[in-house]
Every structure is written in structure tokens, then in C-alpha cells.
Amino acid sequence: NIDGLERVAGIDPDLLMEAHGSNQVGHCMECSKKYTNLWIRDCLKRDEIPKCTLECCTGTIRPDTVFFGEPLPKRFSELVDQDFEQCDLLIVLGTSLKVQPFASLIIKVPEETPRLYINLEKNASEAKHPLTILVFGGGFKFDDEDNYRDVFLESACDDGCTRLAELIGWKDELTNLVASEHARLDKEFLEEAQKEATELPTQMSHQLSIKADTKVPPNQIPMKTNPRESPKQKPCHTEKKAEISKATITSVSASGSSNQKPGNDKKKQQTKLSTKHMKTKK
Questions:
Q1: Does pTM surpass 0.90?
Q2: Is residue 272 one of the residues assigned to a domain?
Q3: How do 115-119 and 150-154 pair as beta strands?
Q4: Number of domains the chain contains
């Protein structure tokens, strides 16, 4: 989840812990200067590698995402210890809880904290293996007799959140918030599309000028294939070969069999001629 939809929804980045990072911002790999996603996208649209703009630096800009094999941000482990022990309500959305360290986070909250799980299925979240229970404390206990805090809502994330907001009396506020945010995003996307439409002719002109200035090495210039324009070049027999191939295909299709040997047509023609000659002689 690196698309930054939480930021788009208007949540303060300081209240987010994006464990795998986000593509909304980037940093120089040399000097750590910060760059926005829009700036990086503008470079990519011009077919340019994003480079640091500082005069003393030539580093490449990479998005703030965690790639395979890279460790999670240090802030992740810090906030796990700080935030989960203060949690009053834990809501888990749209995950199977099969991957660590996220699967074991649900046991970090106090024992009296309610845990709401909104997902399309619940079986994957119920850890029953003895080793899992011993090491990670197990999963949810939806169907246990002694369950007093785990609630499962079988639903898509959006529908489940709407249902929850309705139950606690926040549905109207949520509906108005969604409508206002959609209007804001539509306006931003329209402005960006207009900007791209304005810059497109300039970018195309720039690319055409680069192609026009590109010189082809002499050894890569294609040879002329027309014998009239190049007397020293041997005539091209491609057309003749194509005519022979076409004639062969026509002969095979007319005979009704594709397994005939190449010489069969010639023998048949000779047989027909000799038969006709014999009839004429008689």
C-alpha cells in the first residue's frame, strides 16, 4: 500500500505510519533533499531521470517506498511500542493478516481493547496453530465461547466503514466529507490535465528537435536496395523468390494435398503432355 490514498483523503501525514513507504514524496539518494511526487512525475513525463537540482549534487531521486529486501522504517517499530498500548479501539481493514510483523500487531493492544475486523473472509485471521499461539499470541477469537471483544464484519472496506459510521452517528458527517474531498480532487485533476495539455506541444517539439539533431554513424546508414539507384549493388531477387513461392502454394492448394513432393507437379504435367501427344498421333 504505497499509493498514499490516506493522504489524498486528507489525513495528516503525521498521523500515518506507512510501513512500506509512499510514492507521494521522494528524496535524493546522495544529499536527502526532499522532492514531491508531482515534481518526479514531471521529470518522467519528459523522459528524464529525476536528478537532484542542487548545484553541488548529482544524486538520483527515488520515491520513499520500501523495496523487497529493505528494512521497514525505524519509525514503524517506535510507533508500535508507543501507540498500540494506548489504543482504545483497533480496526483492521482488508488484510488476511498472514504476513509478519503485521499479523502479530493485534496482540499489542491492551486486553480490554475491542478489536473490529472488516474483511470479506475471517478464516485467515483466526490463528489456531499451537506454535502461532505460543509465539504470537494467536489471532482473533470470533467463535470462542470466552470471546468478549473481537467482532467480525463480513464486508468490503468502504461498505464496512459506512456501516460503522452509521452505527455511531457519523454517517452524515462522513458523507459530506467524502463529497467535499471528491470535489477537491476533481478540481486538482482537471487543473493537472489542463497543464499537461498545455505542455504537451512543447514536449513533442523538444523530442522532435532531439531526433533531428541525432546523427547516424556512417556504418549504420541503410544501403539502397533499388538497382537503378545503385548500379554496383547486385539485383535483389526477393520478388522473384516470392513469385516462385506463390506459384508453389497455388499448385499445392489446387492439387488438394499439402504433402506432395516438390517434383510431383512437374511429373504430372509431363504425363499429361505425353498422353495428349499419343492421342493426337492416333
A1: no
A2: no
A3: parallel
A4: 3
